[in-house]
Specification:
Keywords: Membrane, Transmembrane, Transmembrane helix. This protein has 73 residues and is mainly α. 81% of the residues lie in helices and 0% in strands. Helix 1 runs antiparallel to helix 2. The protein is elongated. The mean pLDDT is 87.
């Protein structure tokens, strides 16, 4: 069964938003261990940039794999 475009983007956004929260917290804990001190605002901005990239990546990959599935059916 194939997934709709709306379903693909909803999945990509949900997955990435959860990842954003995990990554933001991990950065706050891990960066100082490597001597990197970044402000909360800059950490958030970097997270937003990477979140946009991740949503696009997840959506495109989901559509590509969905296309493979649809062609086999």
């Amino acid at each position: 069964m194939s997934q709709s475009r709306k379903g693909s983007i909803a999945e990509a956004i949900t997955n990435t938003c959860i990842g954003f929260g995990i990554n933001y917290t991990a950065n706050l804990l891990i960066f100082p261990l490597f001597g990197m001190h970044i402000s909360l605002a800059n950490n958030f901005l970097m997270g937003i940039i990477y979140t946009g990239i991740s949503i696009a990546r997840s959506y495109v990959l989901r559509r590509v794999f969905n296309g493979f599935t649809a062609r086999k059916a």
